[in-house]
Fold this protein.
Amino acid sequence: MLAALCPPTGPRISRAPDPHHQPPQDASSNFPHHPVYRGYRRDLVAALAVLCQGRREVVEEIVQAGAVLTVVAQCRGDAEDTFVREWAIWAVRSLCELSPEARAEIQALDARTAPTLDADAG
């Protein structure tokens, strides 16, 4: 399930699969590389969030798989997948509650802010 949740990249302009795109030949090649239906990403993140709740062994599997940042990336949200952000925040909460390693990995991220526009600049 984590392999199907590759981190979102860049703005999403088209939902149509690229006919020239060659998916990577690894374990994730068994999963679709485009949304199967509206809400697909939300459903995956929701299932993951529910599975993480109070289950240290599930959280440790996510940490060992190196997928903490994949879960965090879902917090960015998506206009096409309503509530994906909220489910991702719930999953991150469980990760941080049950795993010091996940918490440390998230704390090590650099905080970035959106550039502010100066009203006086021309």
